[in-house]
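User: Here's a structure from my thesis project, written as C-alpha cells. My advisor, Dr. K., wants to see whether a designed sequence matches the one we expressed. Can you design one independently, without my sequence as a hint?
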C-alpha cells in the first residue's frame, strides 16, 4: 500500500523540520568552536591543564563532540537523500529498499528518512 498524498506532504514537512534541526545543531557547533577554545568550553581558563586528568577530559570532550558532529552529518545526508527520493519517486517513497514492502507510516513518522 502506497502512502496517501496527505501522508507524503506530512512526511515532507517532517523531513524539512528534521533537516533544519540538524543544520542548526551543526551550525551551533561551528559557531561555538569559532568563538572559544576547547579549554574555554570545558570551563578551564588556563592555557595548560593543571592535572593530567584535565587533559584526558578535554580529549574525551573533543572526541565526543566530533562523534556527535559526524552522526549529525550522516543523519543530514540521509535526510537529504530521503527528500531526493520523495521528490523523484513519490510513488516509491516508503517502500523498503531491501524487501520491497511498505514501511509502516508509524515508523516513517518517527524516522522519515528510513530506507527499510
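Assistant: Designed independently from the structure alone:
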Amino acid at each position: 500500500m502506497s502512502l496517501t498524498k496527505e501522508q507524503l506532504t506530512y512526511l515532507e514537512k517532517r523531513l524539512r523540520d528534521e533537516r533544519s534541526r540538524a543544520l542548526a545543531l551543526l551550525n551551533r557547533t561551528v559557531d561555538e568552536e569559532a568563538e572559544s577554545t576547547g579549554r574555554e568550553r570545558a570551563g578551564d581558563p588556563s592555557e595548560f591543564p593543571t592535572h593530567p586528568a584535565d587533559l584526558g577530559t578535554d580529549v574525551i570532550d573533543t572526541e565526543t563532540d566530533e562523534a556527535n558532529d559526524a552522526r549529525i552529518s550522516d543523519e543530514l545526508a540521509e535526510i537529504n537523500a530521503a527528500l531526493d527520493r520523495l521528490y523523484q519517486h513519490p510513488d516509491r517513497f516508503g517502500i523498503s529498499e531491501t524487501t520491497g514492502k511498505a514501511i509502516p507510516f508509524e515508523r516513517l513518522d518517527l524516522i522519515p528518512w528510513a530506507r527499510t
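When you compare it with your expressed construct, this may help: Residues 52-88 form the longest helix (37 residues).
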